[in-house]
Amino acid sequence: MSEHLRIEEFEHYVRTIISGVNLELREKQELADEWKQHLYDHYAALRSSDLDQDEAIRTVIAQFGDIQMIQHEVNQAYPSAKKRHILKEMCIAGLCLIACIVGPKLLIEAYFQYYFIAVPIIALAIAYGIYHLAVKRQTFWWLYVIGFIGIYLFFLQAFLTPARETAINWELYPQQLFSLNWDRLTGPSGLWDFVTMHMMWYVVILFQFIRGNNYIPVWKRICNASFAYWAMLFIGVFVAGSFSSGETQVLVANVFLLYGFLQQTISIEGILKLQAKVVNLRN
């Protein structure tokens, strides 16, 4: 059997393990990439020591471990995918609701209204469905790039084209790339401003460097996160536009902005670490 076909046994071995672990799809993919890297590295080391192909493959798989034992260890080490998913979504929803309740008072001195809660809940339900059923399921990095470019051009046209004109005014562009002026970052439209979108995007990119994952290149993680972030903003434009009330449109747009941002910056590992620290402080 050829070396290529033999190495396919590693692929089958990892797929079998992954099929029995309680993780989300993207987490499974990251873990599978990590394990395959270990297998191929070990295989190369054994082959370089003049071990024949068959023996090298058998040795690598035997030393990596029994499939059921690995599945058991992973499932013991991590909470179930469903619990992790619910925990992360609850944190994101809570932060979005707090922002929608507190934000109007801080930014425009608006008195609390019940729709400050009702509208964001509806928007969160829509954002959740769109993100998990459409945006997150995209897996090809080149589609991330194409999608991001198209969406970004849409926002350039929307924010940099003067009224009654069709051409983008590029002289305005540098002003929209960076600002630390709070009055520019927030206003009657909440966080829905092009410069604020950029500033939040920079944070999303920064988080891709901070998160430790040596098996998925940083540039791929940036492509993935950037597409998901801007895609949620893009979809938010049309969802918000489906409502007739201006106040409702602002709330919905900001929910989509925050939801897309928090999905890329909040990790379940971070939540669990924070939860553990809180428990330790109580004890």
Number of strands: 0
Order of helices and strands: HHHHHHHHHHHH
> What radius of gyration results from the CA coordinates?
23 Å
User: Major sheet, described briefly?
Assistant: none
Write the layout of secondary structure elements.
Blueprint: H1 3-18, H2 25-48, H3 53-64, H4 67-77, H5 81-108, H6 115-135, H7 141-160, H8 182-185, H9 194-210, H10 218-241, H11 246-265, H12 268-282
Characterise the protein shown here.
With 283 residues, this protein is mainly alpha-helical. The chain has 2 domains: 3-77, no CATH class; 81-274, no CATH class. 75% of the residues lie in helices and 0% in strands. It contains 12 helices and no strands. The protein has helices at 3-18, 25-48, 53-64, 67-77, 81-108, 115-135, 141-160, 182-185, 194-210, 218-241, 246-265, 268-282. Helix 9 (194-210) packs antiparallel against helix 10 (218-241) and helix 9 runs parallel beside helix 11 (246-265). The longest helix has 28 residues, at 81-108. The termini are far apart.
Descriptive key words:
elongated, single chain, mainly alpha, 283 residues
Summarize the structure.
By secondary structure, the protein is mostly helical.
